[in-house]
């Protein structure tokens, strides 16, 4: 006779070992996540990102509930991107391949100047990482960098300044730069940019924008 291995049947009434039981948080609450995990999920969904330095109370919760949050987001066809070294995280649409999935996160197309500014900030971030320093940029430096492409936009001075201000306001609104207290006109660059642009993408964009700038300078010299 052959011996058979007996598998122990799980009790369907027994809660999983990693599940946390809690009282309803409010009348009619049917949620399964603890309060801290729910607050974390809301912050990630409202975005634009979670920064461990600015959200010091939520970052430990992210490390604790990361798998649980990732699962909840996957139910919505979303993906959680986390860099534990930089202490930043954000949510993006999951790459579902050939599967048609509804789009939950609204995307806005970047203007040319916004792309130029983001690329510049990403370069400064990479250089600061090599030096082991915080990445800092001034308002004047951002304006000066975008001014290099003024000819390419073929617009008047007032229109160019409006676009420059709009680009800076957009990166501020999305928490990609944050004002440094006690240092007027200076900002710290968020490590989130490292996750948004890979090294290969940065190289490709540098080449593309350098060509645009060179072409506009040649046209200016010829005129």
From TrEMBL:
Domain of life of the organism in this record?
A: Bacteria
Q: Where is this region: Disordered?
A: 1-25
Q: For bias kind Acidic residues, which ranges apply? A: 1-11
- What would be one Pfam family of this protein? DUF4194
Q: What is this protein called?
A: DUF4194 domain-containing protein
Query: Which organism does this sequence originate in?
Result: Ectothiorhodospira mobilis
Print the organism lineage. Answer: Bacteria, Pseudomonadati, Pseudomonadota, Gammaproteobacteria, Chromatiales
């Amino acid at each position: 006779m052959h011996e058979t291995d007996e598998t122990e049947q799980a009790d369907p009434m027994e809660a999983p070992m990693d599940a946390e039981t809690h009282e309803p948080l409010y009348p009619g609450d049917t949620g399964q996540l603890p309060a801290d995990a729910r607050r974390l999920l809301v912050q990630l969904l409202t975005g634009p990102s979670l920064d461990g330095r600015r959200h010091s109370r939520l970052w430990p919760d992210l490390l604790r509930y990361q798998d649980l949050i990732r699962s909840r987001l996957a139910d919505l066809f979303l993906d959680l991107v986390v860099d534990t070294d930089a202490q930043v995280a954000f949510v993006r649409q999951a790459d579902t391949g050939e599967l048609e999935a509804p789009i939950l996160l609204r995307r806005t197309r970047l203007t040319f100047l916004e792309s130029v500014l983001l690329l510049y900030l990403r370069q400064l971030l990479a250089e600061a990482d090599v030096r082991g320093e915080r990445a800092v940029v001034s308002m004047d430096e951002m304006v000066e960098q975008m001014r290099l492409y003024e000819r390419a936009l073929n617009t008047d001075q007032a229109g160019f300044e409006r676009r420059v201000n709009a680009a800076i306001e957009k990166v501020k609104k999305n928490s990609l730069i944050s004002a440094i207290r006690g240092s007027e006109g200076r900002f710290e660059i968020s490590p989130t940019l490292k996750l948004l642009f890979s090294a290969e993408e940065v190289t490709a964009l540098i080449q593309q924008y350098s060509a645009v700038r060179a072409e506009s300078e040649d046209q200016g010299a010829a005129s």
